[in-house]
Structures are given as structure tokens and as C-alpha cells.
Amino acid sequence: MTVYNFSAGPAVLPKPVMEQIQKELPSLQGSGMSILEISHRTKRFEDILDTTKQDLKELLQIPDNYEVLFCQGGGTGQFAAVPLNLANHHRKIALLDSGHWASGAADEANRLGYTVDIVGNTKANKYQSLPYPDQKLSGDQYDYLYATLNNTIEGTTYHRDILPEHNDITLVGDMSSNFMAERYNVNDFGLIFAGAQKNLAPAGLTIVIVRKDLIHPAAHTPKMLNYEPYVKKDSMFNTPPVFPIYVAGLVTKWLKDLGGVDEMEKINRKKAAVLYDYLDESKMFKNHVAKAERSLTNITFSTGSDDLDAQFVEFATQNGLMSVKGHRSVGGLRASLYNAMPIEGAKALVDCLHQFEQTH
Amino acid sequence: MTVYNFSAGPAVLPKPVMEQIQKELPSLQGSGMSILEISHRTKRFEDILDTTKQDLKELLQIPDNYEVLFCQGGGTGQFAAVPLNLANHHRKIALLDSGHWASGAADEANRLGYTVDIVGNTKANKYQSLPYPDQKLSGDQYDYLYATLNNTIEGTTYHRDILPEHNDITLVGDMSSNFMAERYNVNDFGLIFAGAQKNLAPAGLTIVIVRKDLIHPAAHTPKMLNYEPYVKKDSMFNTPPVFPIYVAGLVTKWLKDLGGVDEMEKINRKKAAVLYDYLDESKMFKNHVAKAERSLTNITFSTGSDDLDAQFVEFATQNGLMSVKGHRSVGGLRASLYNAMPIEGAKALVDCLHQFEQTH
């Protein structure tokens, strides 16, 4: 039985990447040493890090006035690092509450003593649509406007053409769950961050893309959360997460060979359409997000009955379709269709949904 | 040619562990999913984390009044986390300056606004011996006494029988480079931390062992550096470094099968003796550390000539003995003999040293 893993993250890696990791695990590039064992101070690893960074710049069309940092600590680490590094003028942040992770970012900034103004929220409709600022925002008032670009749990996305207005304010985007899955213009942002464990590498690596003029010495900020030492030492002031960086290098190469982010987005749109088209026709399973705001990578749906949803999870698991249960905070069902998920996975899921619908 | 990797870290993993990783990479325990891809919220991974924690408790004889936390961020992360969590009464730390990493810990605590008193240092003899407090220390004065137990760069170790006196003060130990390599009594410490990339797992995981009464809500501390959420959520309030935790589980199992930490220490003493015995007899290569303070895991030596040292590095590399160059801050030569280095590696190095000595 072919197993498809619809987990929201850590998530599937491309099959050729998995094969290459396995093949060269005992001896990296004929060195006689494993990637799990080599020193980060070797020329071999420095080349891997440099190439991965260059490939990210190329794939995401990152302009020269941005830095690319390889960090640890995931989104939770950046919920602290972003205000600690960027909110140094007003100590005041405008934030769009689009659900679970946006709210987590607000909590962490609050804990650290920053003022967080929720300038838009869609709590009233259970975050099934995206919030937008209820006022014109300015950098004279706030250090930045914070948005969770893709809401993994709620299934909504600020795609590039429906970003919140940011003419007079720095926009910060959490791109953890749709990084390299669809095109964004990096110029729209002062800072983008992304945990690697959805579209880039196994858990343990976080990418930060930050405009150079926003990097300042962040006094009293722990070094691990302070962007300046990463810039000064090319993300190597201490031992970086060597293995995830190596895998990120293989995944970026795979994506380049496949045609880059624009080609990936086309594939992702087709893949998501397989599932959304079914859901829009189904009498049993529904998705409640407006079409323009639908996520390509995390598709939420439900029968409306907790019991029936649970039965479907069981049925899907028996058919090798894993982790289709919705996040514990919202319930229901969810399928994550990240870059490495083949279209056959989406089709297998639709077949399974169809079969379940006909027999229940 | 057999390649031996004497890197100070990331470092060698046990061969059977490497083989198992490679074998089950595409399908963990027959699940059809890779350890690189499974969700951390699966029962399968929760079992791995629980078992690894239990094995660490057993191997290190960790008493029940201690917590074991799985963190990210390495030693540098803990240089901040330890004062942020533990130095909340006096905001004042006593620290033994035994070299590079102790000094790094002092700098980070200073940056974060804590008072750091260097109560002993051996800078005058280039850290070739261990410092001890020049006064009786008390918890009425300091939140804790901080010591780097094994000095990776300088080749010295506070072994269990030569720890600094700590009757009236909490002792904190950085055990990054001799974790599970020799026996310590956990009861001697309020807190121990260790980066995994020497004796436990690939880079990206940090183990913290902390006495329960020392854990308090650390207000205004970033969540990633705050022990309390790790305790409350069993190190899973966010995505943990899944793969290094999995490898740690394989390594602890390997170490248990081998006979545990006491047996490992016996092997490490034999292994280190192969090299120290040679160095004590050699007319060309010298180690300058007093016998009682010598590290089992990081053995420093030199010809006394930078040029000759560099020639030996070249000669060793040609013979498949990698990364024997000393740390850039002290120069000279260094061989790291971690748990996974077989005694044949130490013997091969001695053969190579001998051959070089006879021909130069």
C-alpha cells in the first residue's frame, strides 16, 4: 500500500531527495565521513551552506539588500526574535489576528513587554476569512505590521495579490507553511521567516530573510535570537543545524531542477484544485473559506459532525492516508499538500473521500 | 583507506547507529514514513521521545527531582537560558574562567545584564590547568557557580573527583563535550547542559538536566529559552528537533547495550591512554596538562612549532586522519576521542604520530 502523509509538518520530503540522503549517508561526496558527523568548519560544509543560500536567493528572487539567515528555534523563536530586533523604535506592533499562530506571535511579543495592537481579527467567524486593518497604518506609529501569511490550521492565505496594504509601514510575514510553495515579492516585506519543516527540510532549521536596514545591534537580546551575529558570522557563530541545512540544499536543488517557485505554484494550484473541486461538489464534506483566500498548502474541511469526521480519519488511515485530522484547536479535517506531495496523493485522498461519502 | 574523524564536534556517531539510520530512513518501523517526515504529534514519535528520556535517566542515574529537557540552540542558547532562568535572586553569578567556552558564557550573561564575578581563572598559564575559586562561595551571594566541565579547546576536565567545592552554592555545569563519556553524580549539580553533537546526536539538539526546585516562571524570557514551558509540555510546546532526538534514542540504546556510562568511561580511559602514553614519551609532541586534569575526550598537543604542526595536519589528512588541527583560538593540534571513536582510531593516530616523528 502506498502511504501518503498529509501532516501539517514536519512533512513529506521529495522522493529523489530522500533517496540521495539515504545513499550518501555513510560517506558525503566520497569523503568517508557522514553529513551527520562532519565539522561545520570544513570547506565541504561551508560550500553546502553557501550554495543553499545562493539557491534560496535565486528561487525566491531575494534582492541584494536582504540578508538570508539560518537559525534554530522555529516560529516560536521568531515570535520573540522579530520584536527583539525590529520593534526598537516605538516598541509597538500592529498585528492581524488571523488565527492560532498569529495569536501565538502576539502573546510572545506581549510577554516580552511590547505593545501589540490587534488591528484586525476574524475571530467572530472562527477565522474562516482573513482580517485586514480597520485603519490606515503608519510607521510613525508602529514598528511593523505582522501577518501570518498562510494559516496552517484555518486554511487561509494572504496570497501576493491580497496582502494587507503596507505603503507606509514595514510588513513582517510568517511564511512557515507556504515558503517556496507560491510566489511572493520579497520587496513587499521588511522581514519574512519560515520554519523549514514544511517545504524545505526536516525540523530544526528556520530561515529568516530580512532587509539590511532593519538590522541593528539588539542590546540585551540573547545571541541566538539576535540577527546581527548571524549576519556578521554568516550564520556560523556557533554550530548550526548541519543536517537540516544539507537537506535544504538538496530540496532547493530539486526545486530548481523542477523549474523554480513559479512552476511549483502552478503544480500546487492544480493539486489543490483536485481537492477543492471535490469539496465544492460534495454533499458531505465542506470547506468554508472564500476562494480568493484559500490556502494551497493546508486545506481544511469537515462533515459538520465530530463523529463522522473521526470515522473518516479512521477510514483514511486504513487506506494509507495519514494525518488528515484537523488541528486540536479547531477540530475537523485537514490535508496538507506541500511541495513534495505528488498530485497522486491529492487524487488518492479524493477517491477516499468519495468512497466514504457513498458508503456513509 | 579507513577514515577517522577527530573533529571536536559535530563528531562521529557509532557505526551500528549510522547503519540503522540508513536502513530505516525511508520507512521508520515499517510505517511507510520517514523519521524526517513524521509529525511530532504522532504516537510513534512521542514513544521515541519518552524512551530516549527514560534511557538518559537510566544511563546518567538522574534522580527523580530533576527534569530532562530537549532544547535547541546549543551551548550558546544555554549561555543565555541559564542566567535568564536561574539568576533571578541576586542576578549575580560566580564563574570559573577555564578558557574559551567559559569566557563565552560569561560574555553572554554580561550582555543580558547579569553581574558575573570571575572567581578563578588560569589565563596566566594559557588555561593549561583548571581554575578553582579563590574564596568560599555561598548561595547568599551568588545565584550559582558556573563551570565548563570539559574544556574542548584546552583539553582539561573537572572530573567528578576534582569538581570545585559547592557545599553552599548551586553548581551549574556545561557538559557539552563529555556528556555520557564519564560518570558524574547528577546530585552535585543544580543544572547540567550539553549540546548533543559530540556524544549523543547530530547538531541541533541540546539536553538540559535541571533540579525541579530551580524552575520558576521566567517572566520576559523568550519561550524558547524558558525552562517552564518545556517542563509543562514535555519539550513539545512547538516542533522539537525530531531527527536529532531520534538519533539520540539510537545512541542511548547503543550505550546501554555496551554496558552504560561506567563501561564507556573504562573504554574512554583506555582509548585516551593510548594517546597520552605516546605523548608522554614523545620527544616531538607534548601535552601540557597535569594528569589529574586531562580530558578523556579532547586531547591537545603540539610540536611547539606552528610550521611543524601544520605539516603534521597535512600528513595526518593524507593518511585518513581528519580534523586534527587545534582550535583557531589556541592553535596546535587536537584529537577528539568521543564515545563513538573506536580504539583503532587512537592507535592509528599514534602510528601516524610515530611515523611523522621518525621522519621529521
Automatic annotation (TrEMBL), chains A, B:
Catalytic activity: 4-(phosphooxy)-L-threonine + 2-oxoglutarate = (R)-3-hydroxy-2-oxo-4-phosphooxybutanoate + L-glutamate; O-phospho-L-serine + 2-oxoglutarate = 3-phosphooxypyruvate + L-glutamate
An example Gene Ontology biological process: L-serine biosynthetic process
Record keywords: Amino-acid biosynthesis, Aminotransferase, Cytoplasm, Pyridoxal phosphate, Serine biosynthesis, Transferase
Main location group: cytoplasm
Stored Gene3D superfamilies: Aspartate Aminotransferase, domain 1, Type I PLP-dependent aspartate aminotransferase-like (Major domain)
EC annotation from Swiss-Prot or TrEMBL: 2.6.1.52
Any one cellular-component term (Gene Ontology): cytoplasm
Free-text comment on the cofactor: Binds 1 pyridoxal phosphate per subunit.
Pathway recorded for this protein: Amino-acid biosynthesis; L-serine biosynthesis; L-serine from 3-phospho-D-glycerate: step 2/3
SUPFAM superfamilies given in the database record: PLP-dependent transferases
Subunit field text: Homodimer.
Function noted in UniProt: Catalyzes the reversible conversion of 3-phosphohydroxypyruvate to phosphoserine and of 3-hydroxy-2-oxo-4-phosphonooxybutanoate to phosphohydroxythreonine.
Protein name: Phosphoserine aminotransferase
Gene transcribed to yield this protein: serC
